[in-house]
Specification:
Mean pLDDT: 81
Number of helices: 10
Number of strands: 7
Strand content: 5-15%
Strand order of the largest sheet: 3-4-5-7-6
Helix content: 55-70%
Largest sheet: 5 strands, mixed
Radius of gyration: 44 Å
Order of helices and strands: HEEHHHHHHHEHEEHEE
Low-confidence stretches: 344-353
Length: about 400
């Protein structure tokens, strides 16, 4: 029926025509109630019924025009037909169609006009008294058609609204899932970058030292290789912990080691000192001793790790670094400075590429804080992050 609406309306029009023709042979005023076959409709009335049924074929395409045509044919029958044929049935169907496909105010105006016009003509024309049941029947059927059409329209609107809300909720759920996946991928990418960049930088430095002193100072070469082994072991452990987050529920148990934080900052700084980077640390988190939130603690650690890694990779020879972690009011300020070493322009190279600085800013922004990184006046580089304690 939905695929072929015109054919459906044609079948409906045929059924309406048959009903009107059959009804035109019934006499409602028989001696013992309505009787069938005691009267015969006029040819003009049959023509009006045929035209009204034909108009119903287009009821959904042109509801206003079809209602006007069927109402006009009904008025013509009410004023000329004797006995009257039920041509008004076509107008009732047309009024129902219009009410089911338009808004309520339009239904009210047109329905009231149709009811009043057809009922008034029926009461004022013909030999029947104005209170005859046929006249009251026209009023009742037109009123019920308008009410039924409006009820169907409201029901359709209600179902469509429910369907739209369900589809919108599904789209919102899918968008939220995609957003969470994207955020998780970005977070894991930052962690992998921080781990790999830090440890590989140390491995690269210590491997260079070992290659340089292998022949003349084998004891120092052994010490450098030991640092390479320790750095690579730490890298593997952190990579294992990070990749463990990607395991499914049925996979083997993921690592349960806590995420690194400021509590192990000394170990991080010692690894850089062993790689030949002098680092001075000053940390003041207040006397109350309230621990930082896990996300803030991890972000502060990663900012320091990435900043010191950049110093080791990009600063000149003999560079020195200073790390400051201070709690100021409702935030923690993390500052990492370096003097640039003997090469005054080397410290500015981190701005040229890589994802380390971007990752630091993203970490700070995700917590509602901020992060600034840029060259210092007189040489060197400065990283300053403000992280809300809460």
């Amino acid at each position: 029926m939905r695929a072929h609406p015109l054919a459906t309306d044609a079948v409906l029009a045929l059924g309406a025509l048959v009903s009107m023709v059959v009804g035109s042979f019934a006499d409602p005023h028989g001696p013992h109630g309505p009787t069938f076959g005691t009267r015969t409709p006029e040819p003009f009335s049959l023509l009006l019924m045929l035209l009204g049924a034909a108009a119903l074929v287009f009821r959904r395409r042109q509801p206003h025009a079809v209602l006007a045509v069927t109402a006009g044919l009904s008025l013509l029958e009410l004023t000329t037909g004797e006995p009257r044929a039920p041509v008004a049935m076509a107008a009732v169907i047309a009024l129902y169609t219009l009410a089911s496909r338009t808004d309520r105010p339009t239904t009210g105006r047109i329905g009231l006009l149709t009811m009043a016009g057809m009922t008034g003509v029926a009461m004022l024309s013909g030999p029947l008294p104005w209170y005859a049941q046929e006249n009251i029947g026209i009023f009742a059927w037109t009123g019920m058609a308008a009410a039924a059409g409006d009820a169907v329209r409201s029901r359709r609107a209600f179902v469509d609204a429910i369907r739209e809300r369900a589809e919108r909720a599904e789209r919102t759920r899918e968008e939220e899932a995609r957003r969470r996946v994207a955020e998780e991928r970005l977070r894991i990418a930052r962690d992998l970058h921080d781990v790999v960049a830090h440890h590989i930088a140390l491995v690269n430095v210590q491997a260079g030292v070992a290659a340089h002193v292998m022949d003349k100072r084998p004891d120092q070469a052994k010490e450098a290789l030991a640092h390479v082994r320790d750095a690579s072991r730490s890298a593997l452990n952190e990579l294992r912990a990070t990749v463990g987050l990607l395991r499914q529920s049925g996979d083997p148990e993921a690592p349960t080691e806590p995420a690194p934080g400021l509590a192990v900052l000394d170990e991080l700084v010692d690894s850089f000192r062993k790689a030949g980077l002098p680092v001075k640390v000053m940390m003041e988190l207040g006397r109350d001793g309230d621990p930082l939130a896990a996300a803030v603690d991890l972000a502060a650690y990663r900012v320091i790790q990435e900043a010191l890694t950049n110093v080791r990779k990009h600063a000149g020879q003999g560079a020195r670094a200073e790390v400051s972690v201070v709690r100021v009011g409702a935030s923690v300020e993390v500052t990492v400075l370096d003097d640039g070493g003997t090469d005054s322009g080397a410290a500015e190279s981190p701005e040229g590429g890589g994802h380390g600085l971007l990752g630091m800013r993203e970490r700070a922004t995700a917590l509602g804080g901020s992060c600034f990184a840029g060259p210092r006046y007189g040489g060197g580089f400065r990283v300053h992050a403000v992280l809300p304690v809460g």
